[in-house]
Amino acid sequence: MPLAKVDVVVLGAGIVGVSAALHLQARGRSVAIVDRSGAAASETSYGNTGIIQAEAVFPYTFPRKLGEIALAALNRDPRAHIRYSALPSIAPWLWRYFLASSPQNRIAIANAARPLNAAALPEHRAFAKAAGAEALLRDEGWIKVYRSERGRQAALAEIEELRPFGVASRVLDRAELAAMEPHLTEAAAGGVHFSEPATTSDPGALVKAYAALFRERGGRLLNGDARTLTTAADGWSVATAEGTLAAREAVVALGAWSSDVLVPLGYRFPLGVKRGYHMHYGAKGDAALSRPVLDAEYGYVLTPMTRGIRLTTGAEFARRDDKPSSAHLDRLEPVARTLFPLAERRQSEPWLGRRPCLPDMMPIIGPAPRHKSLWLDFGHHHLGLTLGPMSGRLLAEMMTGEKPSLDPRPFSAARFG
Question: Which residue(s) pair with 4 in the sheet?
C-alpha cells in the first residue's frame, strides 16, 4: 500500500522543482516533492552567481571562430576549462552544441527564449513576497567590467545587439564605475551596468524560503530516490524514506540528473552538463561590493554573498560525475585578485555545481511525448535561478488546462524528435 497519494509528485527540490510545485499547489493540486537530499536547494540552486537575469537575451553559445575554438581546445580561454579525459564521452554532445550555436540559430533562440526570460523577475517577486523573503532580493543590478579597449568595443557591440530587445543598460567609464564600485582596482577600465536584474545574497536561502512556503501551504518535501519512479495503474509511484508515494502525474525537474529517470522510460534527450565551481573569500580592509561583477574578459563573477565574496567560475566541460578539480578556480583566483582585493579563502575546497544544458541552451518545459501523465521541466542551463519560477508557472498552466501565459512551443520536447 502506498504511503500517500497526491495529484502530482515533483522530482527534484531545486528552484525549478520547488517553483513548479508552488504553481501547481496554487491551482488546487495536491503536490509532494521528492528529492534525494530531503531538502531544498542542495545542488545547483545553491551555488550560482545569485543573478536573476531579467536582461538575458542571447544564449551562451559554442565559439564559432577558429581562433576562439583553438584557445578553448588548448585550455587557454579562461572562461572555460576542458577535462581532456572526458572528451571521448562528451564529444557527441559538444558537436550538437556547436551545430546549434550557428549565428542563425543564435538569433532564433534569442527570439524564442526572450519572453520566458523577460517574465522571470515578476514571478520571483511574487514568490518572495508570499514567502516573506523580499529582503533576500536586491535591486542594484549587476556590472560587466572590461579591462581593455578591445573589451570596451565588445561591450558597445553587445549593447547595440541588445537594443532591439529593450534591455536597459548604461556604459560606465572608469570614473563612473569607481563611483558605483569604489573598491574595484584600476584593472577595471570601465563597464556596463545592467540595472533591471535583481540579485540575491543567498540563492540557497531564497529557494529554501520558497520551499518553506510550499510546506506552509500543505505540501510535503520527502527524501526519496527519483530513479525508483515507476508507472502504476493510476499514474506513478516512487519510493521515499517514509514509504511508497503514489501520484496521478509526475514532473521531472532533476536538472543534470533528469536522464537518470528518463532513460529507463525510453527517453534519450541530448542533455549535457557544464560544471562550475565557487569559492567564498573575505575582503581586505574595508573593501566591499554592492552588486555582482562579471569580468568579461575572464568569464568569472564576483558576488557579495552572506558568506563572503563568492567567485563563480565559467564552464568546466567534463562528465557529470567526474571528481571535482580545483584547476579552473586556481587559474582564475590570481586574476580576480587583480580586480578586487580578495582576502583569505573561507572554504577548504571549492564547491561544484552542474548546469543542465541542452544543445540549444533552452529548457524543455511541457509534456513527455509518450507518457500522457509525465511532465518535463529541466535543462535551464546557466539560468536555472532566473527561469525556475516562470517555467514553473508555464508548466502548471499546461498541466491544469489553463491558457499559457506565453507560447510554450519553443520549449517542447518534440524539438528533439
Answer: 245
Q: Which among 52, 5, 54 has a CA at the least distance from the CA of 32? A: 5
Of 236, 383, 265, 382, the residue nearest 314 (C-alpha): 382
The Cα 278–Cα 252 span in angstroms is 26
pLDDT tens digits for range 53-65: 989 999 999 999 9
Summarised one tens digit per residue, pLDDT across range 344-361 is 999 999 999 999 999 999
Evaluate whether 404 touches 47 at the Cβ level (below 8 Å): no
Q: Is residue 160 part of a domain?
A: no
Per-state percent for the chain, helix, strand, coil, to nearest 5: 40, 25, 35
- Which residues span the domain enclosing 382? 4-46+204-270+359-416
- Per the domain annotation, does 228 fall within a domain? yes
* 181 C-beta neighbours (distance < 10 Å), count: 22
Question: What residues have CB less than 8 Å from 320, skipping those under 6 apart?
Answer: 256, 257, 273, 275, 354
Residue 183: beta bridge partners? none
Q: Where are the beta strands (DSSP E) in 64-219?
A: 80-82, 137-138, 142-146, 169-172, 190-194, 198-200
Q: Number of folded domains in the chain?
A: 1
Give yes or no for a contact between 280 and 289, defined as CB atoms under 8 angstroms apart. Answer: no
Tell the residue number behind the cell numbers 534591455, with chain if given: 167
Q: What CATH number has the domain bearing residue 213?
A: 3.50.50.60
Q: Is residue 224 part of a domain?
A: yes
